[in-house]
Amino acid sequence: HPQLTKACRKSWPDSGDGHLTTLLTEYNPKTQQYTPRRGRAALITSSTSWTPDEDFGILLNALLLLDKLIMEHRDEHDARDLRVMVVVT
After folding, report:
1. Would strands 25-28 and 33-36 be described as parallel, antiparallel, or unpaired?
2. Each residue of 34-54: pLDDT tens digit?
3. CA–CA gap between residue 15 and residue 55 (Å, rounded)
4. d(Cα 23, Cα 60) in Å, to the nearest integer?
5. Alpha carbon distances (Å) from 59 to 5, 48, 54
6. Which of 65, 58, 36 shows the shortest CA–CA distance to 73?
7. Which of 23, 64, 69, 77 is most solvent-facing, going by the fewest CB within 10 Å?
8. CB under 8 Å to 54, separation ≥6 — which residues?
9. Residue 69 confidence (pLDDT) above 70
10. CA-to-CA distance for 37 and 34, rounded, in angstroms?
């Protein structure tokens, strides 16, 4: 619907910070390449048919284990900024 997408950014220059960045990537004008953004979240995607036979408990348990590992290593080099973004479609 046009009104729902009206505020959505349509291009890289409209990324909001003037540095050609998204949540996961950034543009490097020296190399003229898009690269993974420093400090970005890891992206995990999963699809579902939303039927009773699907067990998302496995994913949730894995996320709990990952969170525990991140917390245990948070004082190590670069581990303090680890984040995970989960998208279920």
Report:
1. antiparallel
2. 888 877 888 888 888 888 888
3. 36
4. 23
5. 31, 12, 11
6. 65
7. 77
8. 48
9. yes
10. 9
Residue 23: pLDDT band by 50, 70, 90 thresholds? confident
Residue bearing tokens 């050609």: 20
Rounded Cα distance, 87 and 82, in Å = 17
Q: What is the pTM of this model?
A: 0.57
Residue 13 scores a pLDDT above 50: no
Query: SS3 for the chain, per residue?
Result: CHHHHCCCCCCHHHCCCCCCECCCEEEECCCCEEEECCCCCEEEEECCCCCCCCCCHHHHHHHHHHHHHHHHCCCCCCHHHCCEEEEEC
Quick check: 21 and 31 in contact, CB under 8 A? no
